[in-house]
């Protein structure tokens, strides 16, 4: 049996080296685009493995192994670095970022979500890891993504993808931002930035969104009063993939009227394995 294990180990190692060769060929073939990672494609790979998995070996470990592989192979194609919101009292974000992006990818901690976003925008980092939006956040990071400039980072993933592991601190998830577009995977959430010219109840917005065919999962709002004024801003999570050209956005705007200054997808994420798919109460 030990000889058989040695043979299996050799076979696994051979396949890893073969995979590296194929990845290097892919890296050459897709230049000059040079998009070295695709979170949607990664999610599809992990879902496929989870669907075919059998036996006693934990699926969470399979995902962890493949996350390490994906990160290492991505780095073969070009520069790859992570910036993580991880102040002294929030080290759990560092742990889930390390688990997701692997132990060989360079990571840097910053003390604010805005700093993580800036490093992505200026090209210092490939990915920025920021906390899930909170209702009581007086300086929400997501408002900085509410424009259509191609140099503005977009939300592309939710962490962790399969269980929290041994991350330190409170049980908080995170979002990843990058200078790429969110890709649909067949089971997604999209985050819409909605700017209004006057106050409107969440109930009215929810009714208009759902009448347009967009199922609302969650709301986060910011009035700007803490910053000396400004129009009401809402971050609306919907249970689907929504592109900027989706006709449902136009239908939503027409139902609410001219008070909608913009309704812009600022990214989204593939639903993680095991995440409760039920729509939350707004």
UniProtKB/TrEMBL annotation:
GO biological process terms, semicolon-separated: chorismate metabolic process
The Chorismate mutase domain is annotated at 1-81
Gene3D superfamilies in the record: Chorismate mutase (1.20.59.10)
Q: What Pfam families does the annotation carry?
A: CM_2 (PF01817)
Supply the enzyme class, top level.
isomerase
Query: What PROSITE patterns does this protein map onto?
Result: CHORISMATE_MUT_2
Cite the EC number: 5.4.99.5
Q: Which InterPro entries match?
A: Chorismate_II_sf, CM_dom_sf, CM_II_prokaryot
From the UniProt record, which GO molecular function terms apply? chorismate mutase activity
Q: Which domain of life is it from?
A: Bacteria
Instruction: Specify the protein name.
Output: chorismate mutase
**Organism in which the protein naturally occurs:** Skermanella aerolata
């Amino acid at each position: 049996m030990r000889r058989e294990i040695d043979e299996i180990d050799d076979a696994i190692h051979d396949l890893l080296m073969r995979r590296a060769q194929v990845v290097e060929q892919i890296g050459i073939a897709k230049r000059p685009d040079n998009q070295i990672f695709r979170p949607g494609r990664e999610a599809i790979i992990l879902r496929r493995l989870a669907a075919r998995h059998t036996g006693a070996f934990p699926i969470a470990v399979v995902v962890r192994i493949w996350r390490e592989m994906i990160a290492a192979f991505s780095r073969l194609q070009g520069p790859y670095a992570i910036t993580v919101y991880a102040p002294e009292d929030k080290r759990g974000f560092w742990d889930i970022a390390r688990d997701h992006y692997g132990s060989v990818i360079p990571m840097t901690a910053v003390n604010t979500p805005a700093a993580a976003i800036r490093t992505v925008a200026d090209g210092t980092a490939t990915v920025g890891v920021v906390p899930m939006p909170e209702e009581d956040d007086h300086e929400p990071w997501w408002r900085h993504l509410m424009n259509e400039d191609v140099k503005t980072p977009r939300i592309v993933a939710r962490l962790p993808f399969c269980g929290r592991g041994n991350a330190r601190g409170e049980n908080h998830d995170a979002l990843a931002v990058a200078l790429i577009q969110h890709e649909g995977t067949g089971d997604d959430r999209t985050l819409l930035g909605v700017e209004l010219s006057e106050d409107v109840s969440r109930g009215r917005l929810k009714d208009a969104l759902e009448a347009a065919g967009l199922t609302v999962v969650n709301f986060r709002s910011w009035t700007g009063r803490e910053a000396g004024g400004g129009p009401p801003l809402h971050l609306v999570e919907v249970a689907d993939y929504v592109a900027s050209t989706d006709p449902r956005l136009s239908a939503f705007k027409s139902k609410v009227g001219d008070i909608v200054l913009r309704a812009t997808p600022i990214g989204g994420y593939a639903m993680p394995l095991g995440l409760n798919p039920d729509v939350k109460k707004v």
